[in-house]
Specification:
Shape: globular
InterPro entries: G_ERA_dom, GTP-bd, GTPase_Era-like, KH_dom-like_a/b, KH_sf_prok-type, P-loop_NTPase, Small_GTP-bd
Keywords: GTP-binding, Nucleotide-binding
Distance between the termini: 27 Å
Family: Belongs to the TRAFAC class TrmE-Era-EngA-EngB-Septin-like GTPase superfamily. Era GTPase family.
Strand content: 15-25%
Bound molecules: guanosine-5'-triphosphate, magnesium ion
Organism: Aedes albopictus (Asian tiger mosquito)
Protein name: GTPase Era, mitochondrial
């Protein structure tokens, strides 16, 4: 049955594209039944990390880069990730599970983007089941980069018994890295001394700082978190700084039985990944709030002899929106389909025939 299909990847000795689609359909999630999958080894180590942050901070991009596998759909718009998903990597005797979480939002934003209660509790749920919390903070946004979102601070306060670390992301967008000093000061409540891997050279004089920037920073400062155990400055986009993040995470792995096979990269089913990938590209290709009004479902999915066949339906609220999604001569829909197809080939490493069709939401629904 389709809803019981399971995603499993086999990582071979050669790099991708030799990743294979190993098993087609099985009837139970691997994580729920470990006993028959392998003999437990006494030296196994496990580390579970909740990756949290505000929408669009780059959480999913970071996770894909960390595990070197595209299992979390990403887009330029907010609220791409709508439910927590696991990304898994196993190395030697250690297994790392990263929870990709939906962006943390307040009630007003939740209403605007039709976000339900599950969505909001999803992040807390992931945190509760983790040994570490990784906070992704976007330094490219000059409006928000000098403070942690109060919702984030609330989460960190509620789970202060779980060690947390800070990942300053998108450093590739900064002309000068010196601004990172002020950001770190602001969002750690100036507790730099307590942070072990803090590596930026302090400025000789505070007069180096342009006046306008200093003023802007003062205005933006709201609240920070002084208890991060480490701070990393990275670009999830270019991969800069990610090696250090990986070493840090793996160094926290503790003795514990693996929850997934060494070959698994995600707990998501192929169907879920296809729907999410279509949704992500609709977010990229359609303007403003339009993509949030669309509903995507999988109409058909089959894996025949290592080739995937899928058909997705995008339900539009009106004929006008449907025309926008399709574009002139269906040009836009073709572009979206091509883009999703190439994303999915990257994810599954098998050929895929994908069709995306549109329909208009019936009035009685
Ligand atoms: N320049 C730059 N862009 C980045 C970086 N990391 C992520 N992005 C971009 O930021 C946008 C959002 O990335 P996502 O990974 O989808 O962000 P997210 O935090 O998972 O977003 P939600 O799922 O909506 O909460 C995408 O356009 C990414 O390409 C980075 O290090 N540098
Ligand atoms: Mg995401």
């Amino acid at each position: 049955m389709l809803d019981k299909a399971m995603l499993i990847f086999v990582r071979q000795a050669v790099p991708r594209p030799a990743l294979l689609w190993a098993r087609n359909f099985t009837s139970a999630k691997i994580s729920e039944n470990l006993s028959d999958k392998k003999e437990p080894q006494s030296n196994e180590k496990l580390i579970k990390v909740a990756i949290i942050g505000v929408p669009n901070a780059g959480k999913s991009t970071l996770i894909n880069h960390l595990i070197d596998h595209r299992v979390c759909p990403t887009s330029m718009k907010v609220h791409t990730t709508r439910a927590t998903a696991k990304a898994i990597q196993s190395r030697a005797n250690s297994q790392m599970i990263l929870f990709d979480t939906p962006g943390l939002v307040g009630d007003r934003d939740a209403k605007k983007h039709h976000i339900d209660a599950n969505f909001l509790s999803s992040c807390r749920h992931a945190v509760q089941h983790s040994n570490l919390i990784g906070v992704v903070h976007d330094v490219s946004n000059s409006w928000t980069r000098n403070a942690l979102n109060p919702i984030m601070v609330d989460v960190l306060k509620s789970y202060s018994h779980i060690p947390s670390f800070l990942i300053l992301n998108k450093i590739d967008t900064l002309k000068s890295k010196r601004i990172l000093l002020d950001i770190v000061k602001n969002i750690t409540n100036n507790q730099l001394e307590s942070i072990k891997n803090y590596r930026i050279k302090k400025r000789k004089s505070s007069q180096d700082k342009p006046q306008t920037e200093a003023k802007a920073n003062r205005q933006e400062v709201q609240e920070g978190w002084p208890h991060f155990s480490e701070i990393f400055m990275v670009s999830a986009f270019t991969g800069d700084g990610l090696k250090e993040v990986m070493s840090f995470i793996y160094s926290h792995a503790k003795a514990g039985q693996w929850e997934h096979l060494a070959t698994e990269a995600t707990d998501q089913t192929p169907e879920q990944l296809i729907v999410q990938s279509v949704r992500a590209r609709l977010l990229d290709y359609l303007p403003q709030e339009i993509p949030y009004a669309l509903a995507t479902e999988l109409e058909f999915f089959e894996n025949i002899n290592g080739r995937m066949f899928a058909s997705a339906v995008v339900t539009c609220p009106s004929e006008r929106i449907e025309r926008l999604v399709c574009g002139e001569g269906n040009g836009k829909l073709k572009q979206i389909t091509e883009r999703v197809t190439s994303d999915l080939i990257e994810t599954f490493a098998v050929p895929i025939s994908l069709t995306i069709v549109t329909r208009i939401k019936s009035k009685d629904k």
